[in-house]
Each structure stands twice: as C-alpha cells, then as structure tokens.
Amino acid sequence: MMSSESGRVGPDGNGLAGNDAADLDAAIAASAAGLTERLQRRRCRLRVDTWDPEYGTSVELSDADDLGPANVRLDLEGPWSPLTPALPEILPSVAFIDGVRRIDIRLFAEVDAEFAPAVAGSWAVGVAWSARPPLIDAVRIGRTLVVGGGLAHQDLVGAVGDHALTYSFAGVTGVTPADPVQGLQNAMRAAEGQLAAETFASGRAALMMLDGPLTYFAANGPVVGVIKRQSRPYLPPERASLLATLEVGQRTPLFAIVNQQLERFSWYARIGRRRSIDGTMTGIVRLEVSAEVGVTEAARIANQATAILPLFATEIGRDARAPQNLYPVAQLEATLRHRLGDPALIRRALESALWSDL
Questions:
Q1: Burial code of 248-285, b = ≥16 C-beta within 10 A, e = fewer?
Q2: DSSP type of residue 162
Q3: Taking CA 224 as the corner, what is the angle to CA 231 and CA 283, rounded to the nearest 5 degrees?
Q4: What radius of gyration, in Å, describes the C-alpha atoms of the chain?
Q5: pLDDT of res. 102
Q6: Predicted confidence (pLDDT) per residue in 306-339, tens digit
Q7: Cβ atoms within 10 Å of 61's Cβ, excluding its own
Q8: What letters, b where the CB count within 10 A reaches 16 and e where it falls short, cover 144-153?
Q9: Distance from CA of residue 99 to its chain's centroid?
Q10: Whole-angstrom distance, CA of residue 220 vs CA of residue 262
C-alpha cells in the first residue's frame, strides 16, 4: 500500500493526498452538521384547516413588526383556566348583523397621463334574528364607486331595464388595486355600524352579535364583536396555550385590549366541534365588548355568548367557513348576495353607461 502525506486511505484503498484528505474532512463535517440539524429540528404534525380554501385560512397571522402580541391586561377574573358557563333556561332574542360586498367591475380612473385604480361595487347589510329558521330583517342595499389616487368622479349610473343603479362616488387616496376594494369594504362596514346602532336603540335584542371587531359601532350594553379569522396574537405564548384545551362551550378568562382607539374586554371561545385531524384553532372565535360595560357585566355577557353560540355553529362540510361561521349569518349572507342582483346583467349595465359617456 502506498503511503500519502496525510496517512489517510480512500475508499479504493489508495492513500489520499493532503488536499483530498481536507476535502473529505470537510464533507464529513458538513454531513454531521446536517444530521445534527435534522435531529434537532422539531417534528411537526399536520392538521386540517376546515375552511374552504377560496375563503383563505381561519388564521392569518401577519409577520409585520406592529402585529406582535397586543398590549393587553390579563388576570381580570380569577385563575387563567377554561371557564364553562351554563346555558340559560330561556334563550334570549339574539340579533346577528352582517354584510356582504361584491366588486361589479374594476376600472381605471384616468386624467391626462395620470391614472389610478377604481371599482364599482355593491354591498348589502341586514339582521338575522335567532329563530328557526332565522328571520331576516332590515336588509339594505348600496352601490359605491370608489376611485383611487385622490381623483374625483360623479356618481356612476347604469340601468337594468327600468331600474336605475346608482353607484355613489367615494374617493380614496391610495393608488394600489387594494385601496378601492378597502374603500368598498369600509362603505359596507359603515352601513353595518349604522344598522347596529338602530337595532340597539330599538331595544328588540337582548344580545347583539356583530361580524368582526367593534370598529364602527360599540355600546354600553350587550353588543359583541365576533371575529372568525384570527389575524394577530393577542396573548403571550404561555397564555395562548390554554386555547388548545378549550372544549365546545368553554372560554378563556377576560383580557383587556388597551392599545387601540376603543378599549375592549375580549375572550376566546370554542363554539364548534374539532375533529382529531383538525387544527387547534378550529371552532375558536375571539369575541369582544366595549370596556365601557365594566368587568362584571363583560363577564356576564361573555358567559351568555359563549354558552349560546355553539347552538348556532355550522357543521364541518356544510359551510365553507365551518364551524366558526354561524348558521343565521350564513342564511343572512345567502339572502344578501341574492339581493345584490345578477352580476352579469349589472356588469353589462355599467359598461353601457361607460359607452354612453364617450
């Protein structure tokens, strides 16, 4: 056997030169490091997000710097453990308020060499009352022309037969395609807020459930915002671990969200069944009330809402956002979408209106 500078022997039995030995050492070290990394990497489990992919995901946490755990106050009611409120003997009258929107046509707003995105869209809002089947009430329909870039335009008016369709102008300063869409969303949400204020003033509802955060309406009373999709972590990890232990009809203790314009008391509740193959957040919603009600009343409202909502949760496989989407809300949304009108007819009406302006 021939000797080599390194005294190392290769796979063929021949000696290795110095450079070859160094390369072999480097390869062995790299392989060992890769093996160590694989051994140290935590094994994950795959679980199902039950929402239809067309609706996105039920949890969409942003990685933006300003979306870390919110400024919250904890330990407002006893130890940090699951709470199981009792179902009331007589169900209260519950009003579910929600809205839908649709982009009827995307547009360009043009002035000389300048242009910006725009949309003409329809929206509708209404109330579903907690009857079986749900009673749909107070439906309102609106149509909005949202123009970006700070540009202006008169109302856009089309017609389907003898029926005029007026899209009221609203301007936004943004110049991305998402900005006019957000303007349309804001118009719908403002209409939801107005309807919620009128419903609250009527005194007909013992409990009101509003879709989404209490951005456009909050009151010193049983008005609850229901957030189906979770977009930011409100709890530190050591507290958030409680969510995995919640059973249907259980909630977390209250916590206060204090770093936003409206101070709120909030809690998480599991309102729908989770299969063994489903993710931890399946069936979990975040709910909130105005902090104006006080801790004691907030706890009462939280108990009532947590106990009642599982009665209205949709079943996996029967709704695109089950189980977080509530069946009165699903029925309301279906009615509202129907009331928006035929999208093909409306698009043709809008194109005809633009042809007439040439």
A1: bbbbbbbbbbeeeeeebbbbbbbbbbbeeebbbbbbbb
A2: T
A3: 50
A4: 28
A5: 97
A6: 999 999 998 887 777 878 889 999 999 999 999 9
A7: 12
A8: bbbbbbebeb
A9: 14
A10: 12
Low-confidence ranges of the chain (pLDDT < 70): 1-40, 62-70
Say what the pTM is: 0.83
Q: What's the half-sphere exposure (Cβ side, CA atoms, 13 Å) at 141?
A: 14
Of the CA atoms within 13 Å of residue 14, those in its CB half-sphere come to 5
Q: Can you give the pLDDT at residue 41?
A: 72
Structure tokens at 252: 């977390």
Per the CB < 8 A criterion, the answer to whether 266 and 256 are in contact is: yes
Residue written as tokens 């879709």? Answer: 211
Q: What is the pLDDT of residues 109-121, one digit of tens each?
A: 999 988 999 999 9
Strands 94-111 and 207-211 turn out to be parallel
- From the list 172, 105, 98, 168, the residue with the least C-alpha distance to 137 is 98
Distance CA 322, CA 274 (A): 10
Cα–Cα distance, 283 to 315 (Å, whole number): 10
Query: What distance in Å separates the CA atoms of residue 85 and residue 251, rounded to the nearest whole number?
Result: 8
pLDDT at 66: 47
